[in-house]
Amino acid sequence: xxxxxxxxILDWFRDRSERAKLVRSFNESARSAFVDGIAPTLLKASIxxxxxxxxHQFSNWLNTGFRIQAFTGxxxxxxxxxxxxxxxxxxxxxxxxxxxxxWDTLEIHGDAGQYxxxxxxxxxxxxxxFNPNE
Amino acid sequence: xxDSLFQDSLKVATEAMTxxxxxxxxxxxxxxxxxxxxxxxAVLILRxxxxxxxxxxxxxxxxxxxxxxxxxxxxxxxxxxVQLYDELKVKCHPDRFPTDKELNNIAENLFxxxxxxxxxxxxxxxxxxxxxxxxxxxx
Lengths: 134, 139
What we know:
The complex is a heterodimer of chains A (134) and B (139).
Chain A: H1 2-35, E1 42-48, E2 65-71, H2 78-90, H3 92-100, E3 105-110, E4 116-120
Parallel strand pairs in A: 2-3
Antiparallel strand pairs in A: 1-2, 3-4
Chain B: H1 2-49, H2 56-66, H3 71-91, H4 101-116, H5 121-135
Helix pairs in contact in B: 3-5, 4-5
């Protein structure tokens, strides 16, 4: 029991560091793309509360949402939101990384308006069933 | 007489004190050795016990964390993949090569790849180059 708890504590710290690293890398890429004129809109990733109904076996207790905010200064259309979401979800490596780091919800929304879209991440990667007694 | 008795007593007391201090030193040394030994054993046991378990779930997680993510491509794809996809799907459509069967097959495979990677600018650019070479399309 003690060894399990100890490993869980180490895992928790390691995951936190990896999560922060992923968000930072995304934001750095988005910022340089915006500054270089490659992207017309600035995207910003952050960690949100998430949707508890989307939980899976790797989900964290709290803050399970990966939120991307597009700074357009206007209300984004549903198609625009869905397109950004689809680009993220089509990258299987990124979705897999998000899942193993404890995220279960992807949220996309603009900086204006009340409207946003969210997806359940486990729908986009076939997760194997692990034996809990192993 | 008293003097010699006093001298003898002093000598015996000095010897006894030296012996006891020698015995005390050796006990101390053995105690520290035992503590060190206990420490080493405890570290070895804990290291073995606290080793992370190699479960299927852990392996899955480690493999996922090893792969690199191309964030620049993701950001680029968020804004430019639609135009590129629209251009490629028109120019590489198999119906544009109805007479030549070989070209038609190549176009069909390319078209399938293009549809599969419609949200990936990097891959679409590679397919564009492939289309230029294999189908002689001018973009």
